[in-house]
Amino acid sequence: MKKIICILFAAFILTAACIAVCADTPLLSSDKSDNENGMPYWYPLDTDGFSDFHGENLPYVVDDADIMTDEQEAQLGAKIEAIVEKYGIGYVAFTDDDLHGLSPEYYSSDFLHFNGYGKGDGYGAVVFFLCFDTSNRCWRTTSINSCERIFNEDITYEIDETVDSTIRSGDYFEAFMLHADYVESLFAEIAATDDWTPDDHNYRYVRDDSYSEYERSGEDEGASPVMIVGAGLLVGLIGGGIRVSSLRKQMKITPPRTANNYLLRDTYTVRNRRCDYLYTTVTRHAKPQNNSSSGGSHGSSFSSGHSSGGSFSSGGRSF
């Protein structure tokens, strides 16, 4: 009887442990359908009172947009795992095609927080998020907690410059590999420097809004479409002005001194000088404002705030 009780008790402990692990690592679930509250499968049903935790056995690549092959996921996952193990940071590659009504910044920071990607005493983690939502195709490098001071605006801008052309060409796997290379070299630099700060970093790309996007990237892109259209309009206006001036000089019409010369006397009489307009209304509409951002913008965005009960920083671009 005692053996049976011991066996049942052991089974209960193992079941409870499995439930606890599954509760802390929702990404291990094979069912990726949305929750009953309409949020993604990894989102908790109750976010009140959430606190950061260290997740166990978390995947290093979560390709919910399904843009990579199994071989690519395995190669990228092995690279990120080596970085995580060597430098003790939380790091993951994440793709999705639905933001569920959230901004990409909040969505990617929630992904880190709610899945327990934070490492160390400061619960630091970073995610490279590639979003294919039809209303907002973009990428974001989002960091939480202790990693925020590392991935500041200038570092994030340099990452954007590193992966920009590769993402726009459609080679998304290569972009993830470039991002991993950058993160690896960055943390190697941090590990080799005492009391490292972002000011110690030797930046390859310096953000300067006084220059055009082509001058900042150092690439010779030639004349932009705006310049070409502007030049065409200017040439057209000058040519049209010359032609109109030439035609005016050919006009030698002498107008009559008074308008009465056009009338045949005693054939036209104005009987009523009052005009009535029926059902006339005047409606005014405010001119619509265009607040949408350009899908091909090269400018990096950067934001910080609170999400999932913790802070975050995030920067990236649209494509």
What does this structure look like?
A hairpin with a 2-residue loop joins strand 3 (125-133) and strand 4. It is built from 7 helices and 6 strands. It is α/β, with parallel strands linked by helices. The chain has a 6-stranded mixed β-sheet, with helices on both faces. Helix 2 runs parallel beside helix 5 and helix 4 packs antiparallel against helix 5. The chain has a domain at 58-218 and 298-318: Diaminopimelate Epimerase, Chain A, domain 1 (Roll), CATH 3.10.310.
Q: Helical percent range? A: 25-40%
Strand content: 5-15%
Sketch the major β-sheet. Answer: 6 strands, mixed
CATH topology of the domain at 58-218 and 298-318: Diaminopimelate Epimerase, Chain A, domain 1
Low-pLDDT residue spans:
9-24, 210-221, 280-299
Main sheet: strand order:
1-2-3-4-6-5
The coarse overall form would be: elongated
Number of strands: 6
CATH architecture grouping of the domain at 58-218 and 298-318: Roll
In DSSP terms (H or I, runs of 4 or more residues), the helix count works out at: 7
In short:
It contains seven helices and six strands.
List keywords for this structure.
Diaminopimelate Epimerase, Chain A, domain 1; elongated; alpha/beta; 319 residues; 6 strands
Question: What order do the helices and strands come in, and which of them pair?
Answer:
Layout: H1 2-24, E1 61-63, H2 70-87, E2 90-96, H3 104-114, E3 125-133, E4 136-144, H4 153-168, H5 172-191, H6 213-217, H7 225-250, E5 301-307, E6 310-318
Parallel strand pairs: 1-2, 2-3
Antiparallel strand pairs: 3-4, 4-6, 5-6
Helix pairs in contact: 2-5, 4-5
